[in-house]
Specification:
seven-stranded mixed beta sheet, alpha/beta, six-stranded mixed beta sheet, globular, Nucleoside Triphosphate Pyrophosphohydrolase, 16 helices, Metallo-beta-lactamase, Chain A, 33% helix
Length: 524
């Protein structure tokens, strides 16, 4: 075991040695505005602003989190719900939710407020409230309603299902969807900054084509809503909208944000603020199971049940386990799953050396530049990239022809990646980022966090952050602070004490790089 590996495990042990605590999901609500257009049913969807830290650039319906003042907004009526006070079936993580019923206090008001803020459409008694609601700088909803003694019209909403966001990030949402039939008197919806880049009316079937073809990214509830509305419409399809179990694969949600890439976030003993590692099943027939990092029996049984469902329903069969690198939160389930599924494990040669002590035998050693051919309809070719820096044997997988990259720990969706010598090397890491930025990628699937759409911007942001941190470290060195322990409080001012050992190691990585460049000698 290397010094870096031992440090990772020591930090995990200090954190409790098990899966980090997950915050309760935040209540939220969204509105699916629909109308009968010239060619049939249409819905109004948005493209979220690319700069948003969570799901930037994804397609969504107007919505957001419950705010403190929502319960105090004046509301008339209640949304239609076949089982008032009940709970929606089909939620795979139902046990993690609070006891709130579907129509909890303030949620209808939150949905109507978000619709107003994001589109200018205000559903209130007496209809549309005129130019004030349509102004580019819309007044706060409470102020607008108070000035006209008006009340929000919750009676125009129809409850359409409850979804829990996957555990990509520390913040999750317990979201309720509502249908609302648009009327001409409501005014044309207009989407814009800061929440959205654009909005449009679109037939659900056409929207599904764009998502399924990879032209758009949308979360599972959006896909489910579009599919049901396309096939049955808002009235006949209400039962399917309420029971979301058809969107599951066994006990887990079917999360397929790009064709042929299924994503299963599993609880792992990982570094905070992460609590899960994304396991990917890649391929349309033959498939690779990438980074099964959970070492708990419960999580692996859930994964096996989901894999059974993927094989039976989708024809996707895992033919090998591929490890992007050797860290425990990426390999925890590999040995047990390889035995249960009777499939081999593939990894880089450096990873093979590191995982042997964990009882994982690597049958195929991969190198950068290799191609993995997976049969299926359609077939898929994966180009292997050797991307050292975080780990000597780190690999990333590019879906050729699609521009999708399974990045492992190349980047994370909501935090930075630790570069800890001697296993980690900052020069190697920055070079790996530069090489992947030159690939012209479309989507990056990290092991921790939600997939990233603007890959170039994400990689550039990581590069800029690293170089800015390096400038701070060099400035501290020039000021006479010549050890990582001395530099730590000067540059990592907001890092939790639990992670200070890793932060020190990362400072060492920058100091090693600066020394190789001769900058510490000249600065001494």
């Amino acid at each position: 075991m290397s010094r870096a590996e031992g440090l990772y495990e020591a930090v995990l042990a200090a954190a409790g040695g098990s899966t980090p605590a997950v915050r309760p999901p935040r209540p939220s609500a969204a509105v699916v505005l629909y109308r009968e257009g010239p060619a049939g049913l249409e819905v109004f969807w948005l493209r979220r602003a690319s700069a948003l830290p969570f799901m930037g650039g994804w397609r969504a319906f107007p919505g957001g989190g419950l705010e403190r003042g929502d319960a105090a907004l004046p509301v008339s009526g209640t949304p239609a719900h076949p089982q008032p006070g009940g709970r929606t079936p089909g939620l795979p993580d139902l046990a993690t939710l609070s006891g709130d019923p579907d129509l909890a206090s303030g949620l209808a008001a939150a949905a109507l407020r978000e619709l107003y803020e994001e589109t200018g459409v205000l559903l209130a008694e007496g209809g549309w409230l005129g130019a004030a609601a349509r102004a580019p700088a819309r007044p706060p909803l409470a102020e607008l309603l108070a000035g006209r003694a008006a009340r929000l019209d919750a009676g125009r909403l129809v409850f359409a299902g409850r979804w829990l966001t996957p555990p990509f990030a520390p913040v999750r949402f317990d979201n309720r969807f509502f249908l609302a039939a648009w009327r001409a008197a409501d005014g044309e919806p207009e989407a814009g900054p800061p929440e959205s880049e654009s909005g449009e009316w679109i037939a659900p079937a056409r929207a599904l084509e764009r998502v399924g073809g990879g032209g758009e990214m949308a979360a599972p509830p959006i896909v489910h809503l579009l599919r049901v509305l396309a096939e049955e419409g808002p009235e006949r399809g209400l039962g399917r909208l309420l029971d979301t179990s058809e969107a599951n694969l066994g006990p887990l949600r079917r999360i397929e944000l790009r064709p042929g890439i299924l994503l299963f976030p599993l609880a792992t003993a990982t570094l905070p603020p992460a609590s899960h590692t994304n396991v990917h099943l890649v391929g349309h027939g033959e498939a690779l199971l990438v980074d099964p990092g959970a070492d708990g029996e419960r999580e692996n049984e859930r994964l096996l049940a989901a894999l059974d469902a993927a094989r039976e329903r989708l024809g996707r069969r895992a033919v090998a386990i591929l490890l992007t690198h050797h860290h425990p939160d990426h390999v925890g389930g590999a040995a047990a799953l390889a035995r249960r599924l009777e499939i081999p494990v593939w990894a880089h040669a450096a990873t093979a050396e590191r995982v042997a002590s964990r009882g994982i035998a690597v049958a195929r050693q991969l190198a950068g530049g290799e191609r993995i051919e997976l049969a299926g309809t359609p077939p898929m070719t994966l180009l292997v990239h050797h991307t050292p820096g975080h780990a000597r044997g780190h690999l990333a997988l590019e879906v050729e022809g699609a521009g999708d990259l399974l990045g492992g720990d190349l980047v994370a969706g909501f935090s930075t990646i630790v570069i800890a010598p001697p296993e980690g090397d900052m020069d190697d890491y920055l070079a790996s980022l530069e090489r992947m930025r030159a690939r012209g990628l479309r989507t990056l699937f990290p092991a921790h966090g939600a997939p990233l759409l603007d890959v170039d911007a994400a990689l550039e942001a990581v590069l800029a952050h690293r170089l800015d941190r390096e400038r701070q470290i060099l400035a501290a060195w020039r000021a006479g602070h010549h050890s990582a322990a001395e530099i730590l409080p000067l540059v990592y001012t907001d890092t939790p004490p639990l992670l200070h050992p890793l932060a020190e190691r990362q400072i060492e990585a920058h100091l090693e790089r600066l020394a190789r460049r001769g900058e510490l000698l000249s600065a001494h």
